[in-house]
Amino acid sequence: MTADRQNLDWMLRDLMKGVPETRHIVVLSADGFRLAQYATDDDTADRLAAACSALQSLSSAVGGEFAAGGAMRMVVIEYAAGFFYLMAAGPGAFLATLADAEVDPGLMGERMRDLVGRLGEHLAASARSGTPTLR
């Protein structure tokens, strides 16, 4: 494991510990490629990354059509068992979390914004495809 991957794992773990009721955390590229995960197995993380890719694409299209080109920053979905959050984490990268219904939604949004600021140091756009990679 590289030093940067260890730093990324530490940051994701910090989000998990700092926001009670968080269940899954995934960092993904815009095309749905899982870059990192915490507290979830590979299969779940891959399925979540694929779903997030579709959601961010739809959100960006809605923003472009109805919000004068506004880029997607965050999507929050409340469902019966909890909350889903998807936040832009830099060019072509996103942070996704799933949390139980008892989560503090404001705290989750605040901690995700803080984490996104730190993630930029550890994600870089690939010259060939524009897909973020871990440094």
TrEMBL record:
Domain Roadblock/LAMTOR2: 9-99
Gene3D superfamilies in the record: Dynein light chain 2a, cytoplasmic (3.30.450.30)
SMART domains hit by this protein: Robl_LC7 (SM00960)
Pfam families: Robl_LC7
Protein name, per record: Roadblock/LC7 domain-containing protein
